[in-house]
Structure prediction request, 518 residues.
Amino acid sequence: MSQPNIKSTIFDNIRIVLCQTSHPGNIGSTARAMKTMGFKNLYLVQPDKYPNAQATAMAAGADDVLDNAIVTQTLSEALVGCAFSIGLSARKRYLSHETVNAREAALQANKIVASQPVAFVFGTEMSGLTNAELDCCQMLAMIPANPEYSSLNLAMAVQLVCYELRMTILNGALEPTSNQTNGDAPTGEPLATNDELERFYTHLEETLLHIGYLNPNAPKKLFERMRRLYSRARLEKEEVNLLRGVLTLTQAPRKHTKY
Amino acid sequence: MSQPNIKSTIFDNIRIVLCQTSHPGNIGSTARAMKTMGFKNLYLVQPDKYPNAQATAMAAGADDVLDNAIVTQTLSEALVGCAFSIGLSARKRYLSHETVNAREAALQANKIVASQPVAFVFGTEMSGLTNAELDCCQMLAMIPANPEYSSLNLAMAVQLVCYELRMTILNGALEPTSNQTNGDAPTGEPLATNDELERFYTHLEETLLHIGYLNPNAPKKLFERMRRLYSRARLEKEEVNLLRGVLTLTQAPRKHTKY
Prediction:
Protein backbone atom coordinates (compact mmCIF):
# COMPACT_ATOMS: atom_id res chain seq x y z
CA MET A 1 0.00 0.00 0.00
CA SER A 2 3.02 2.24 -0.39
CA GLN A 3 2.53 5.63 -2.00
CA PRO A 4 5.35 7.76 -3.28
CA ASN A 5 7.38 8.78 -0.21
CA ILE A 6 6.27 12.33 -0.20
CA LYS A 7 2.65 11.17 0.02
CA SER A 8 2.84 8.12 2.27
CA THR A 9 2.72 10.12 5.50
CA ILE A 10 -0.38 11.84 4.25
CA PHE A 11 -2.17 8.55 3.55
CA ASP A 12 -1.05 7.20 6.93
CA ASN A 13 -2.41 10.26 8.68
CA ILE A 14 -5.98 9.38 7.71
CA ARG A 15 -7.94 7.37 10.25
CA ILE A 16 -11.29 5.73 9.56
CA VAL A 17 -13.34 5.22 12.71
CA LEU A 18 -16.47 3.02 12.79
CA CYS A 19 -18.69 3.37 15.87
CA GLN A 20 -20.70 0.39 17.16
CA THR A 21 -21.00 -1.32 13.82
CA SER A 22 -23.72 -4.02 13.85
CA HIS A 23 -22.83 -6.10 10.81
CA PRO A 24 -19.32 -7.57 10.69
CA GLY A 25 -19.60 -7.81 6.90
CA ASN A 26 -19.60 -4.03 6.80
CA ILE A 27 -16.33 -3.95 8.71
CA GLY A 28 -14.75 -6.23 6.12
CA SER A 29 -16.14 -4.20 3.20
CA THR A 30 -14.84 -1.06 4.87
CA ALA A 31 -11.33 -2.52 5.08
CA ARG A 32 -11.48 -3.35 1.38
CA ALA A 33 -12.85 0.08 0.46
CA MET A 34 -10.08 1.78 2.44
CA LYS A 35 -7.32 -0.27 0.90
CA THR A 36 -8.51 0.34 -2.67
CA MET A 37 -7.92 4.02 -2.00
CA GLY A 38 -4.59 3.54 -0.24
CA PHE A 39 -5.61 3.91 3.42
CA LYS A 40 -4.91 1.47 6.21
CA ASN A 41 -5.71 2.89 9.65
CA LEU A 42 -9.03 1.44 10.80
CA TYR A 43 -10.42 2.00 14.31
CA LEU A 44 -13.44 0.10 15.64
CA VAL A 45 -15.32 1.53 18.60
CA GLN A 46 -17.27 -1.23 20.39
CA PRO A 47 -18.03 -3.32 17.32
CA ASP A 48 -20.94 -5.74 17.83
CA LYS A 49 -19.12 -8.80 16.51
CA TYR A 50 -15.41 -8.65 15.90
CA PRO A 51 -13.24 -10.49 14.96
CA ASN A 52 -15.67 -12.37 12.78
CA ALA A 53 -15.46 -14.72 9.79
CA GLN A 54 -17.87 -12.59 7.77
CA ALA A 55 -15.67 -9.54 8.20
CA THR A 56 -12.68 -11.49 6.96
CA ALA A 57 -14.63 -12.82 3.99
CA MET A 58 -15.77 -9.36 2.90
CA ALA A 59 -12.30 -7.88 3.29
CA ALA A 60 -11.11 -9.95 0.33
CA GLY A 61 -7.42 -9.06 -0.09
CA ALA A 62 -7.57 -6.34 2.56
CA ASP A 63 -7.17 -8.62 5.56
CA ASP A 64 -4.00 -6.74 6.52
CA VAL A 65 -6.12 -3.65 7.17
CA LEU A 66 -8.53 -5.78 9.18
CA ASP A 67 -5.78 -7.53 11.15
CA ASN A 68 -4.27 -4.20 12.14
CA ALA A 69 -7.58 -2.59 13.10
CA ILE A 70 -7.57 -1.10 16.57
CA VAL A 71 -10.57 -1.82 18.79
CA THR A 72 -11.46 0.75 21.47
CA GLN A 73 -14.20 1.10 24.06
CA THR A 74 -14.84 4.80 23.48
CA LEU A 75 -14.69 7.18 20.55
CA SER A 76 -12.34 9.46 22.48
CA GLU A 77 -9.78 6.67 22.69
CA ALA A 78 -9.99 6.15 18.94
CA LEU A 79 -9.36 9.84 18.36
CA VAL A 80 -6.24 10.16 20.51
CA GLY A 81 -3.57 12.04 18.57
CA CYS A 82 -5.96 13.36 15.91
CA ALA A 83 -5.79 17.03 15.10
CA PHE A 84 -9.21 17.12 13.47
CA SER A 85 -12.26 14.82 13.42
CA ILE A 86 -15.02 14.88 10.86
CA GLY A 87 -18.31 13.08 11.57
CA LEU A 88 -20.34 11.63 8.70
CA SER A 89 -24.06 12.15 8.75
CA ALA A 90 -26.87 11.14 6.41
CA ARG A 91 -29.25 13.72 7.81
CA LYS A 92 -29.12 17.37 8.76
CA ARG A 93 -28.51 17.98 12.43
CA TYR A 94 -29.89 21.08 14.01
CA LEU A 95 -26.76 21.73 15.94
CA SER A 96 -24.08 24.29 15.59
CA HIS A 97 -21.75 21.97 13.73
CA GLU A 98 -20.31 23.30 10.54
CA THR A 99 -21.75 21.03 7.81
CA VAL A 100 -20.04 20.52 4.46
CA ASN A 101 -20.25 17.97 1.68
CA ALA A 102 -17.77 15.09 1.55
CA ARG A 103 -15.63 16.80 -1.09
CA GLU A 104 -15.20 19.92 0.98
CA ALA A 105 -14.44 17.76 4.03
CA ALA A 106 -11.66 16.04 2.09
CA LEU A 107 -10.24 19.42 1.10
CA GLN A 108 -10.26 20.55 4.72
CA ALA A 109 -8.61 17.32 5.86
CA ASN A 110 -5.95 17.64 3.20
CA LYS A 111 -4.79 20.94 4.72
CA ILE A 112 -3.93 19.11 7.91
CA VAL A 113 -2.84 15.56 7.08
CA ALA A 114 0.60 16.52 5.82
CA SER A 115 1.59 17.05 9.43
CA GLN A 116 -1.12 15.61 11.70
CA PRO A 117 -3.69 12.80 11.79
CA VAL A 118 -7.31 13.43 10.80
CA ALA A 119 -10.23 11.11 11.57
CA PHE A 120 -13.43 10.42 9.66
CA VAL A 121 -16.04 9.04 12.04
CA PHE A 122 -18.99 6.83 10.98
CA GLY A 123 -21.96 5.86 13.18
CA THR A 124 -24.11 2.73 13.32
CA GLU A 125 -25.87 1.36 10.26
CA MET A 126 -29.31 2.08 11.73
CA SER A 127 -29.07 5.51 13.25
CA GLY A 128 -25.70 7.05 12.50
CA LEU A 129 -23.71 9.01 15.06
CA THR A 130 -25.19 9.86 18.45
CA ASN A 131 -25.12 13.44 19.62
CA ALA A 132 -22.44 12.52 22.16
CA GLU A 133 -20.29 11.08 19.36
CA LEU A 134 -20.89 14.15 17.21
CA ASP A 135 -19.62 16.28 20.04
CA CYS A 136 -16.22 14.61 19.59
CA CYS A 137 -16.11 15.90 15.99
CA GLN A 138 -15.17 19.37 14.82
CA MET A 139 -17.06 19.22 11.57
CA LEU A 140 -19.97 17.35 10.02
CA ALA A 141 -19.82 15.98 6.49
CA MET A 142 -22.74 14.84 4.38
CA ILE A 143 -22.70 12.83 1.19
CA PRO A 144 -25.13 14.42 -1.25
CA ALA A 145 -27.84 11.83 -1.86
CA ASN A 146 -31.36 11.31 -3.13
CA PRO A 147 -33.56 12.94 -0.46
CA GLU A 148 -36.17 10.23 -1.03
CA TYR A 149 -33.72 7.39 -0.52
CA SER A 150 -30.54 8.44 1.16
CA SER A 151 -29.67 5.15 2.85
CA LEU A 152 -26.14 4.51 1.68
CA ASN A 153 -24.58 1.31 2.91
CA LEU A 154 -21.94 2.05 5.56
CA ALA A 155 -19.01 0.67 3.55
CA MET A 156 -20.24 2.59 0.49
CA ALA A 157 -20.06 5.81 2.50
CA VAL A 158 -16.51 4.94 3.62
CA GLN A 159 -15.63 4.19 -0.01
CA LEU A 160 -16.89 7.60 -1.15
CA VAL A 161 -15.04 9.46 1.60
CA CYS A 162 -11.78 7.58 0.93
CA TYR A 163 -12.21 8.23 -2.77
CA GLU A 164 -12.66 11.96 -2.19
CA LEU A 165 -9.56 11.96 0.01
CA ARG A 166 -7.51 10.19 -2.65
CA MET A 167 -8.80 12.55 -5.35
CA THR A 168 -7.81 15.54 -3.23
CA ILE A 169 -4.42 14.24 -2.10
CA LEU A 170 -3.35 13.15 -5.58
CA ASN A 171 -5.15 15.84 -7.56
CA GLY A 172 -7.35 13.31 -9.34
CA ALA A 173 -4.42 11.51 -10.95
CA LEU A 174 -5.13 8.00 -12.20
CA GLU A 175 -1.79 6.83 -10.87
CA PRO A 176 0.38 8.45 -8.24
CA THR A 177 3.63 9.89 -9.54
CA SER A 178 6.26 12.00 -7.87
CA ASN A 179 5.37 15.05 -9.92
CA GLN A 180 1.58 15.12 -10.04
CA THR A 181 -0.07 17.13 -12.72
CA ASN A 182 -3.73 17.66 -13.34
CA GLY A 183 -5.50 17.19 -16.61
CA ASP A 184 -5.64 14.38 -19.12
CA ALA A 185 -3.44 11.37 -18.84
CA PRO A 186 -1.30 10.98 -21.93
CA THR A 187 -2.05 7.77 -23.78
CA GLY A 188 1.60 7.37 -24.71
CA GLU A 189 0.85 7.27 -28.44
CA PRO A 190 2.46 10.21 -30.25
CA LEU A 191 -0.08 12.54 -31.81
CA ALA A 192 0.21 13.67 -35.39
CA THR A 193 1.95 17.00 -35.82
CA ASN A 194 0.22 19.92 -37.39
CA ASP A 195 2.03 19.51 -40.71
CA GLU A 196 1.20 15.82 -40.84
CA LEU A 197 -2.44 16.74 -40.29
CA GLU A 198 -2.33 19.34 -43.04
CA ARG A 199 -0.90 16.81 -45.49
CA PHE A 200 -3.67 14.41 -44.48
CA TYR A 201 -6.33 17.08 -45.07
CA THR A 202 -4.90 17.86 -48.49
CA HIS A 203 -4.94 14.17 -49.35
CA LEU A 204 -8.52 13.88 -48.04
CA GLU A 205 -9.73 16.84 -50.06
CA GLU A 206 -8.15 15.49 -53.27
CA THR A 207 -9.78 12.13 -52.68
CA LEU A 208 -13.22 13.57 -51.96
CA LEU A 209 -12.97 15.57 -55.19
CA HIS A 210 -11.78 12.46 -57.01
CA ILE A 211 -14.78 10.36 -55.99
CA GLY A 212 -17.15 13.24 -56.75
CA TYR A 213 -18.16 13.89 -53.17
CA LEU A 214 -17.10 17.51 -53.11
CA ASN A 215 -18.39 19.94 -55.67
CA PRO A 216 -15.22 21.28 -57.36
CA ASN A 217 -16.89 24.68 -57.70
CA ALA A 218 -17.74 24.99 -53.99
CA PRO A 219 -15.74 22.45 -52.04
CA LYS A 220 -15.23 24.53 -48.95
CA LYS A 221 -18.17 24.21 -46.63
CA LEU A 222 -18.56 20.47 -46.63
CA PHE A 223 -14.85 19.94 -46.39
CA GLU A 224 -14.57 22.18 -43.36
CA ARG A 225 -17.02 19.99 -41.50
CA MET A 226 -14.84 16.99 -42.31
CA ARG A 227 -11.74 18.72 -41.01
CA ARG A 228 -13.48 19.65 -37.81
CA LEU A 229 -14.61 16.12 -37.23
CA TYR A 230 -11.11 14.72 -37.61
CA SER A 231 -9.48 17.47 -35.63
CA ARG A 232 -11.76 16.66 -32.69
CA ALA A 233 -10.39 13.12 -32.63
CA ARG A 234 -6.83 14.32 -31.94
CA LEU A 235 -5.34 11.86 -34.39
CA GLU A 236 -2.26 9.90 -33.56
CA LYS A 237 0.62 9.66 -36.07
CA GLU A 238 -0.17 6.07 -36.86
CA GLU A 239 -3.86 6.77 -37.33
CA VAL A 240 -3.03 9.42 -39.92
CA ASN A 241 -1.00 6.78 -41.75
CA LEU A 242 -3.94 4.36 -41.62
CA LEU A 243 -6.36 6.94 -42.93
CA ARG A 244 -4.01 7.97 -45.72
CA GLY A 245 -3.73 4.30 -46.66
CA VAL A 246 -7.50 4.27 -47.11
CA LEU A 247 -7.37 7.43 -49.22
CA THR A 248 -4.66 6.03 -51.48
CA LEU A 249 -6.67 2.88 -52.08
CA THR A 250 -9.83 4.88 -52.65
CA GLN A 251 -8.14 6.76 -55.47
CA ALA A 252 -6.43 3.69 -56.94
CA PRO A 253 -8.07 1.92 -59.89
CA ARG A 254 -10.12 -0.85 -58.34
CA LYS A 255 -9.42 -4.45 -59.12
CA HIS A 256 -13.03 -5.28 -59.93
CA THR A 257 -13.18 -2.57 -62.54
CA LYS A 258 -9.98 -3.76 -64.18
CA TYR A 259 -11.59 -6.71 -65.85
CA MET B 1 -37.05 9.27 -6.90
CA SER B 2 -38.37 12.52 -8.31
CA GLN B 3 -35.94 15.35 -8.81
CA PRO B 4 -36.99 18.91 -9.47
CA ASN B 5 -38.60 18.91 -12.92
CA ILE B 6 -35.79 20.68 -14.68
CA LYS B 7 -33.38 17.99 -13.56
CA SER B 8 -35.47 14.84 -13.70
CA THR B 9 -34.85 14.32 -17.42
CA ILE B 10 -31.14 14.58 -16.77
CA PHE B 11 -31.22 11.89 -14.11
CA ASP B 12 -33.42 9.73 -16.34
CA ASN B 13 -30.97 10.10 -19.22
CA ILE B 14 -28.29 8.19 -17.32
CA ARG B 15 -28.13 4.47 -17.99
CA ILE B 16 -26.08 2.04 -15.90
CA VAL B 17 -25.16 -1.09 -17.87
CA LEU B 18 -23.72 -4.19 -16.18
CA CYS B 19 -22.20 -6.79 -18.50
CA GLN B 20 -22.31 -10.49 -17.59
CA THR B 21 -22.40 -9.94 -13.85
CA SER B 22 -21.55 -13.15 -11.96
CA HIS B 23 -22.88 -12.41 -8.47
CA PRO B 24 -26.55 -11.48 -8.19
CA GLY B 25 -25.80 -9.72 -4.90
CA ASN B 26 -23.79 -7.17 -6.86
CA ILE B 27 -26.81 -6.46 -9.06
CA GLY B 28 -28.88 -5.73 -5.97
CA SER B 29 -26.18 -3.53 -4.42
CA THR B 30 -25.89 -1.70 -7.72
CA ALA B 31 -29.62 -0.94 -7.71
CA ARG B 32 -29.31 0.45 -4.19
CA ALA B 33 -26.21 2.49 -5.05
CA MET B 34 -27.98 3.97 -8.09
CA LYS B 35 -31.10 4.89 -6.17
CA THR B 36 -29.19 6.62 -3.37
CA MET B 37 -27.85 8.97 -6.02
CA GLY B 38 -31.19 9.41 -7.80
CA PHE B 39 -30.74 7.15 -10.83
CA LYS B 40 -33.07 4.37 -11.95
CA ASN B 41 -32.23 3.01 -15.40
CA LEU B 42 -30.42 -0.28 -14.99
CA TYR B 43 -29.54 -2.55 -17.92
CA LEU B 44 -28.24 -6.08 -17.45
CA VAL B 45 -26.43 -7.75 -20.35
CA GLN B 46 -26.54 -11.55 -19.95
CA PRO B 47 -26.48 -11.65 -16.16
CA ASP B 48 -25.42 -15.02 -14.76
CA LYS B 49 -28.33 -15.36 -12.33
CA TYR B 50 -31.23 -12.99 -12.58
CA PRO B 51 -33.86 -12.56 -11.18
CA ASN B 52 -32.46 -13.89 -7.94
CA ALA B 53 -33.34 -13.69 -4.25
CA GLN B 54 -29.88 -12.43 -3.33
CA ALA B 55 -30.19 -9.54 -5.73
CA THR B 56 -33.51 -8.58 -4.17
CA ALA B 57 -32.08 -8.84 -0.64
CA MET B 58 -29.13 -6.59 -1.44
CA ALA B 59 -31.30 -4.02 -3.19
CA ALA B 60 -32.87 -3.14 0.19
CA GLY B 61 -35.42 -0.42 -0.61
CA ALA B 62 -34.32 -0.13 -4.22
CA ASP B 63 -36.35 -3.05 -5.52
CA ASP B 64 -38.18 -0.70 -7.89
CA VAL B 65 -34.90 -0.12 -9.72
CA LEU B 66 -34.33 -3.86 -9.81
CA ASP B 67 -37.87 -4.65 -10.96
CA ASN B 68 -37.55 -2.25 -13.85
CA ALA B 69 -34.11 -3.42 -14.92
CA ILE B 70 -33.92 -4.35 -18.60
CA VAL B 71 -32.17 -7.58 -19.51
CA THR B 72 -30.54 -7.83 -22.95
CA GLN B 73 -28.51 -10.42 -24.80
CA THR B 74 -25.93 -8.01 -26.21
CA LEU B 75 -24.30 -4.78 -25.13
CA SER B 76 -25.40 -3.13 -28.39
CA GLU B 77 -29.05 -3.74 -27.47
CA ALA B 78 -28.49 -2.13 -24.09
CA LEU B 79 -26.98 0.93 -25.76
CA VAL B 80 -29.72 1.55 -28.34
CA GLY B 81 -30.63 5.23 -28.26
CA CYS B 82 -27.55 6.31 -26.30
CA ALA B 83 -25.56 9.24 -27.68
CA PHE B 84 -22.46 8.46 -25.66
CA SER B 85 -21.12 5.40 -23.85
CA ILE B 86 -18.39 5.39 -21.26
CA GLY B 87 -16.71 2.13 -20.29
CA LEU B 88 -15.29 1.68 -16.80
CA SER B 89 -11.90 0.07 -16.52
CA ALA B 90 -9.70 -0.78 -13.56
CA ARG B 91 -6.58 -1.09 -15.66
CA LYS B 92 -4.88 0.87 -18.38
CA ARG B 93 -5.60 -0.37 -21.86
CA TYR B 94 -2.99 0.17 -24.48
CA LEU B 95 -5.42 1.27 -27.08
CA SER B 96 -6.31 4.62 -28.40
CA HIS B 97 -9.41 5.07 -26.26
CA GLU B 98 -9.52 8.43 -24.60
CA THR B 99 -9.08 7.67 -20.89
CA VAL B 100 -10.21 10.02 -18.15
CA ASN B 101 -10.90 9.73 -14.45
CA ALA B 102 -14.47 9.21 -13.22
CA ARG B 103 -14.91 12.86 -12.35
CA GLU B 104 -13.98 14.01 -15.82
CA ALA B 105 -16.26 11.32 -17.29
CA ALA B 106 -19.16 12.70 -15.26
CA LEU B 107 -18.41 16.20 -16.54
CA GLN B 108 -18.38 14.96 -20.12
CA ALA B 109 -21.63 13.05 -19.61
CA ASN B 110 -23.25 16.12 -18.08
CA LYS B 111 -22.72 18.04 -21.32
CA ILE B 112 -24.93 15.54 -23.13
CA VAL B 113 -27.56 14.23 -20.71
CA ALA B 114 -29.72 17.33 -20.83
CA SER B 115 -30.86 16.20 -24.27
CA GLN B 116 -29.71 12.63 -24.91
CA PRO B 117 -29.07 9.39 -22.99
CA VAL B 118 -25.58 8.48 -21.84
CA ALA B 119 -24.48 5.01 -20.68
CA PHE B 120 -21.87 3.95 -18.15
CA VAL B 121 -20.80 0.39 -18.89
CA PHE B 122 -19.33 -2.01 -16.31
CA GLY B 123 -17.72 -5.39 -17.07
CA THR B 124 -17.61 -8.62 -15.10
CA GLU B 125 -16.33 -8.77 -11.53
CA MET B 126 -13.34 -10.90 -12.49
CA SER B 127 -12.01 -9.36 -15.64
CA GLY B 128 -13.87 -6.17 -16.46
CA LEU B 129 -14.92 -5.25 -19.99
CA THR B 130 -13.78 -7.30 -22.96
CA ASN B 131 -12.15 -5.51 -25.85
CA ALA B 132 -15.26 -6.11 -27.95
CA GLU B 133 -17.37 -4.44 -25.25
CA LEU B 134 -14.91 -1.56 -25.02
CA ASP B 135 -15.27 -1.03 -28.74
CA CYS B 136 -18.92 -0.15 -28.12
CA CYS B 137 -17.77 2.70 -25.86
CA GLN B 138 -16.51 6.11 -26.94
CA MET B 139 -14.51 6.81 -23.82
CA LEU B 140 -12.82 4.93 -21.03
CA ALA B 141 -13.12 6.02 -17.41
CA MET B 142 -10.91 4.90 -14.55
CA ILE B 143 -11.47 5.33 -10.86
CA PRO B 144 -8.19 6.45 -9.31
CA ALA B 145 -7.17 3.66 -6.94
CA ASN B 146 -4.29 2.18 -5.02
CA PRO B 147 -2.06 0.64 -7.73
CA GLU B 148 -1.18 -2.18 -5.33
CA TYR B 149 -4.81 -3.07 -4.62
CA SER B 150 -7.19 -1.62 -7.12
CA SER B 151 -9.93 -4.23 -6.86
CA LEU B 152 -13.02 -2.18 -6.14
CA ASN B 153 -16.20 -4.14 -5.69
CA LEU B 154 -18.48 -3.73 -8.72
CA ALA B 155 -21.30 -2.00 -6.82
CA MET B 156 -18.76 0.28 -5.14
CA ALA B 157 -17.57 1.38 -8.56
CA VAL B 158 -21.17 2.06 -9.62
CA GLN B 159 -21.68 4.01 -6.38
CA LEU B 160 -18.66 6.21 -7.08
CA VAL B 161 -19.70 6.90 -10.65
CA CYS B 162 -23.30 7.72 -9.67
CA TYR B 163 -21.97 9.94 -6.89
CA GLU B 164 -19.74 11.83 -9.32
CA LEU B 165 -22.69 12.24 -11.67
CA ARG B 166 -24.89 13.59 -8.90
CA MET B 167 -22.13 15.94 -7.74
CA THR B 168 -21.73 17.25 -11.27
CA ILE B 169 -25.42 17.54 -12.11
CA LEU B 170 -26.30 19.28 -8.85
CA ASN B 171 -23.01 21.15 -8.42
CA GLY B 172 -22.22 19.39 -5.17
CA ALA B 173 -25.36 20.63 -3.43
CA LEU B 174 -26.39 18.65 -0.35
CA GLU B 175 -30.01 18.90 -1.47
CA PRO B 176 -31.35 19.52 -4.96
CA THR B 177 -32.96 22.90 -5.55
CA SER B 178 -34.96 24.05 -8.52
CA ASN B 179 -32.47 26.55 -9.88
CA GLN B 180 -29.37 24.47 -10.31
CA THR B 181 -27.41 25.30 -13.39
CA ASN B 182 -25.23 23.15 -15.54
CA GLY B 183 -21.60 23.99 -15.94
CA ASP B 184 -21.25 23.60 -19.65
CA ALA B 185 -23.85 24.53 -22.19
CA PRO B 186 -24.73 21.74 -24.59
CA THR B 187 -23.28 22.25 -28.02
CA GLY B 188 -26.72 22.00 -29.59
CA GLU B 189 -25.76 19.54 -32.31
CA PRO B 190 -27.36 16.15 -31.66
CA LEU B 191 -24.86 13.34 -31.43
CA ALA B 192 -25.31 10.12 -33.35
CA THR B 193 -26.89 7.36 -31.31
CA ASN B 194 -25.15 4.09 -30.67
CA ASP B 195 -27.21 2.24 -33.28
CA GLU B 196 -26.51 4.92 -35.89
CA LEU B 197 -22.83 4.55 -35.14
CA GLU B 198 -23.03 0.78 -35.46
CA ARG B 199 -24.64 1.13 -38.90
CA PHE B 200 -21.90 3.54 -39.89
CA TYR B 201 -19.21 1.10 -38.73
CA THR B 202 -20.81 -1.72 -40.70
CA HIS B 203 -20.89 0.51 -43.78
CA LEU B 204 -17.27 1.52 -43.19
CA GLU B 205 -16.09 -2.07 -42.83
CA GLU B 206 -17.89 -3.09 -46.03
CA THR B 207 -16.29 -0.22 -47.87
CA LEU B 208 -12.79 -0.92 -46.59
CA LEU B 209 -13.18 -4.53 -47.69
CA HIS B 210 -14.54 -3.37 -51.03
CA ILE B 211 -11.52 -1.19 -51.79
CA GLY B 212 -9.15 -3.90 -50.63
CA TYR B 213 -7.91 -2.04 -47.57
CA LEU B 214 -8.88 -4.71 -45.11
CA ASN B 215 -7.70 -8.26 -45.55
CA PRO B 216 -10.94 -10.29 -45.75
CA ASN B 217 -9.18 -13.13 -43.89
CA ALA B 218 -8.09 -10.95 -40.97
CA PRO B 219 -10.09 -7.73 -41.06
CA LYS B 220 -10.32 -7.27 -37.31
CA LYS B 221 -7.28 -5.55 -35.94
CA LEU B 222 -6.97 -2.74 -38.42
CA PHE B 223 -10.68 -2.10 -38.36
CA GLU B 224 -10.75 -1.84 -34.59
CA ARG B 225 -8.27 0.99 -34.76
CA MET B 226 -10.54 2.75 -37.23
CA ARG B 227 -13.53 2.34 -34.95
CA ARG B 228 -11.65 3.77 -32.01
CA LEU B 229 -10.50 6.73 -33.96
CA TYR B 230 -14.05 7.63 -34.99
CA SER B 231 -15.52 6.87 -31.60
CA ARG B 232 -13.14 9.36 -30.03
CA ALA B 233 -14.53 12.09 -32.25
CA ARG B 234 -18.06 11.73 -30.81
CA LEU B 235 -19.72 12.04 -34.17
CA GLU B 236 -22.79 14.16 -34.64
CA LYS B 237 -25.80 12.76 -36.47
CA GLU B 238 -25.11 14.92 -39.48
CA GLU B 239 -21.44 14.00 -39.57
CA VAL B 240 -22.37 10.33 -39.71
CA ASN B 241 -24.54 11.16 -42.70
CA LEU B 242 -21.65 13.01 -44.36
CA LEU B 243 -19.25 10.14 -43.78
CA ARG B 244 -21.74 7.58 -45.06
CA GLY B 245 -22.15 9.73 -48.15
CA VAL B 246 -18.41 9.39 -48.72
CA LEU B 247 -18.60 5.63 -48.21
CA THR B 248 -21.45 5.26 -50.68
CA LEU B 249 -19.55 7.19 -53.31
CA THR B 250 -16.39 5.24 -52.60
CA GLN B 251 -18.20 2.02 -53.37
CA ALA B 252 -20.06 3.37 -56.39
CA PRO B 253 -18.63 2.73 -59.86
CA ARG B 254 -16.57 5.81 -60.62
CA LYS B 255 -17.36 7.99 -63.60
CA HIS B 256 -13.80 8.07 -64.84
CA THR B 257 -13.70 4.31 -64.98
CA LYS B 258 -16.95 4.11 -66.85
CA TYR B 259 -15.51 5.33 -70.11
Q: What stands out?
A: Chain B touches chain A through 73 residues (CB under 8 Å). Strands of chain B lie at 14-19, 41-45, 70-72, 84-88, 99-101, 118-122, 139-142. Residues 194-210 of chain B form the longest helix (17 residues). The CA atoms of residues 51 and 67 of chain B lie 9 Å apart.
